């Protein structure tokens, strides 16, 4: 959680957010009595933020499963697929056209077009390239 808060600090700062966890003891971190060493440092860092921590039993925590699994057929909603989102993004259209016409461009060698969706090719599989405008909405 500390890693995630540090990573997304610029999105979280100044907003109230909720952390969902399947680790029940974590729900009492803000009320911990006499924290020491690392936990004390974590609490100092967490005090900058306004948030709630809620417990979800592991077998009901589908959010964690969704974040840790491949999203080959991921959709934002029933109305809008990744392919539809990419159709509205000029940068993605240009990259897809270059890939399809076999042109090379610097820094984008791990990108491929799979079933008309621009994807990052990573060790764990294909990850769809999310348009910049939709990233905040999704994450």
Automatic annotation (TrEMBL):
Keyword field contains Iron-sulfur: no
Among Pfam families, the record links this protein to: RT_RNaseH
Does the keyword section mention Magnesium? no
Q: Which residues form the Reverse transcriptase RNase H-like domain?
A: 1-48
The entry lists its GO molecular-function terms as: endonuclease activity; hydrolase activity; RNA-directed DNA polymerase activity
The record's InterPro entries line, in alphabetical order, gives: DNA/RNA_pol_sf, Retrovirus_Pol_polyprotein, RT_RNaseH
Task: Classify the source by domain of life.
Answer: Eukaryota
Q: Which residues cross the membrane?
A: none
Q: Which SUPFAM superfamilies match?
A: DNA/RNA polymerases
Q: Which UniProt keywords apply?
A: Endonuclease, Hydrolase, Nuclease, Nucleotidyltransferase, RNA-directed DNA polymerase, Transferase
Protein name in the entry: Retrovirus-related Pol polyprotein from transposon 176 (Trinotate prediction)
* Highest classification ranks of the organism: Eukaryota, Metazoa, Cnidaria, Myxozoa, Myxosporea
